[in-house]
TrEMBL record:
Superkingdom of the source species: Bacteria
UniProt-listed PANTHER family: PROTEIN ARGININE METHYLTRANSFERASE NDUFAF7, MITOCHONDRIAL (PTHR12049)
Name used for this protein in its record: SAM-dependent methyltransferase
Protein's GO biological process: methylation
Naturally occurring in which organism (per UniProt): Polycladomyces abyssicola
Keywords from the UniProt entry: Methyltransferase, Transferase
Length: 376
């Protein structure tokens, strides 16, 4: 029996020119369809019973360390009064909870407003339940621009950009084509290629024309550019902090990644069965941080720091949270905290796979840069 989202896809494909839709449109519907999209459904997505873990779920140390960084960032605002943290895509609100708890006893808390920008109704409900005790300290909005251009802000995202729908390109017979999704006579979704028509992709096509062999696939995240440009233009002064998995251009694109980085996550396992059950698995692609830095510069953002999450957390003082203990219980508070720290910073955990990019606009960031570059 055809699933509801498959019916939506087939209907759209049947009315599309050439009987196919760009992969970016397929991914948009698979993740964000108002009723059947993966992120819109009321089902566990994170943690033990979900499909993946995020850094805040490993333990509250992630939020504790970031709270200290936020205090340093606040000093860059030179005591200008009210300020805001604007978090995009806050999941179940766990990171916001950790940050607010970490800042609660500091001098910067009283002047802070925490703004959540979340398109999923299910996620907003979970956030409101988790964060209810903070009352009016938190606000939800779909239009953060008035906040961004009125007070100094720190814009936060953790695993946001990897969930933006992407274009997928494939090189065939010496030419780059765009991957589309069609519906065949065996009642299956499948891939076809079509000529590239989106002007936003032409720059990449020219750049890669000669260097990559036929059959190579890759992704272009134009939605990330649109999002970052909107944030940068709206931001009067402050920082943009991005946590995500990915890397530099040479790490995420090229002949050594012949199938690109697109994949699904389901029950903590990665797979590439993109069309088996749309809406039932997360779909994601690695973030190209060179793109973010280049786009940010054009939009007025200056790169303060980029590197692996492990180096960021160590520079920010996470190792000071390690505690010596002799409790044989592996589930004691000290043992669990030490284990969380190791998972966040070691290469076999999240330390190397996740990267951190900090960009700034209209603020002095010498103190922050000195802290993060110490020991390099």
């Amino acid at each position: 029996m055809m699933r509801p989202l498959e019916k939506v896809l087939v209907e759209e494909i049947s009315h599309a020119p050439g009987g196919s839709i760009p992969f970016i449109r397929f991914m948009e519907l698979a993740l964000y369809h108002p009723l059947w999209g993966y992120y819109q459904q009321e089902r566990p997505k994170w943690g033990k019973h979900g499909d993946y873990y995020t850094s805040p779920m490993v333990g509250d140390v992630f939020g504790s360390v970031m709270s200290g960084v936020l205090e340093t960032m606040h000093r860059s605002f030179c005591g200008k009064g009210s300020w805001a943290i604007v978090e995009f895509g806050g999941g179940d609100g766990r990171w916001a909870e950790q940050l607010l708890e970490g800042l609660r006893e500091t001098a910067v808390f009283s002047s802070l407003t925490y703004v959540m920008v979340e398109r999923s109704a299910d996620h907003r409900r979970r956030q409101r339940e988790r964060l209810a005790r903070f009352g009016s300290k938190i606000m939800w909005t779909q239009r953060p621009e008035p906040v961004l251009n009125s007070v100094p802000c720190v814009v936060l995202s953790n695993e946001l950009i990897d969930a933006f729908p992407v274009h997928r390109l494939r090189k065939e017979n010496g030419h780059w084509c765009e991957i589309h999704v069609s519906w065949d006579e065996r009642r299956r979704l499948h891939e076809v290629t079509r000529p590239i028509t989106d002007p936003a992709l032409f720059w990449y096509v020219e750049k890669w024309r000669e260097s990559w062999p036929d059959g190579t696939e890759t992704e272009v995240n134009t939605r990330a550019r649109e999002w970052l440009n909107q944030v940068a233009v709206s931001l009067r002064e402050g920082f943009v902090v991005t946590f995500d998995y990915g890397g530099r251009e040479e790490e995420v694109r090229g002949p050594h990644r012949p199938e690109g980085t697109i994949r699904c996550y389901s029950r903590h396992h990665a797979h590439r069965r993109l069309y088996d059950a749309p809406g039932e698995s997360d779909i994601t692609a690695d973030v190209n941080f060179d793109d973010l830095m280049r786009w940010g510069k054009k939009a007025g953002l200056e790169t303060v720091w980029y590197g692996p999450q492990s180096r960021f957390l160590v520079a920010a003082g996470i190792l000071r949270l390690l505690t010596e203990h002799h409790d044989p219980d592996p589930f004691s508070a000290s043992a669990r905290r030490n284990r969380a720290i190791r998972h966040l910073v070691l290469s076999e955990g999240m330390g190397e796979r996740f990267r951190v990019l900090i960009q700034a606009k209209g603020v002095q960031f010498d103190e922050l840069a000195e802290v993060l570059h110490a020991g390099e």
